[in-house]
Amino acid sequence: MSDETPLRSISLFDGLTDAELAAVASSCTIRTFEKQAQILGEQEATTDVFFILSGTVRSTSYTAAGREVIYNETEAGEIFGEFSAVDGLPRSSSVVAMTDCRVARMTREKFLKMLEGNGKIAVRLVELLVTKIRSMSERVFEVSALAVRERVRRELLRLAKDGEEFRNGIVIRPAPTHYEIAARIGSHREAVTREFNRLEAEGIVEVRRRQLRIVDIKRLQEGEE
């Protein structure tokens, strides 16, 4: 990869000089993936790290019974695959392209060499990893200690952060399916559907076609207290 410009969008490289970014770019190769393509497989013995230049990917696992668990969705400007790049162990989840994606790929050897040679990148990586660990800890607590209704409410509040303002509420589009929400909060579709029906009856949310409207964000937030 000879042009460092696309890497300017990657948060890990915030604050790098043109020369530093050019050095990073020289260690990367560009790959494209079509929507729904599997990029990584769980327990796969690969260790490259990926920087998302465009698109969105999803990290998931499946239980022995075939139930999907969604960990997170990672968007342009972010990275994935860094766990295996750091510890050299097999992949902890599968990664699938949710849209057409363009990524920069770097081998583990070059990634570790980059961290050893640039303290700014190393510190930024630690910050990003801490953010992910905090998010994981929060979700473990929710699954372990909260009822489905509260888990649904918290997930809606997380989704609302990236939604569009609409009157007194937020519009989320495309609306996640009940199955997707269940996979994110460690529940099942039927339980999520019951909670959505209750929230709609309370006038807190509305589902219209491919849109999820949080009609009263304040009441949703109050329900979390």
From TrEMBL:
Keyword Nucleus assigned: no
Source organism superkingdom: Bacteria
SMART domains assigned to the protein according to its UniProt record, in alphabetical order: cNMP, HTH_CRP
Domain HTH crp-type: 146-218
GO molecular function, one term: DNA binding
SUPFAM superfamilies: cAMP-binding domain-like, Winged helix' DNA-binding domain
InterPro entries cross-referenced by the UniProt entry: cNMP-bd_dom, cNMP-bd_dom_sf, Env_Response_Regulators, HTH_CRP, RmlC-like_jellyroll, WH-like_DNA-bd_sf, WH_DNA-bd_sf
UniProt keyword list: DNA-binding, Transcription, Transcription regulation
Domain Cyclic nucleotide-binding, first and last residues per copy: 12-132
Cellular component, GO annotation: cytosol
PANTHER family cross-referenced by the UniProt entry: CRP FAMILY TRANSCRIPTIONAL REGULATORY PROTEIN, DNA-BINDING TRANSCRIPTIONAL DUAL REGULATOR CRP
Designated name of the protein: Cyclic nucleotide-binding protein
Source organism (scientific name): Reyranella soli
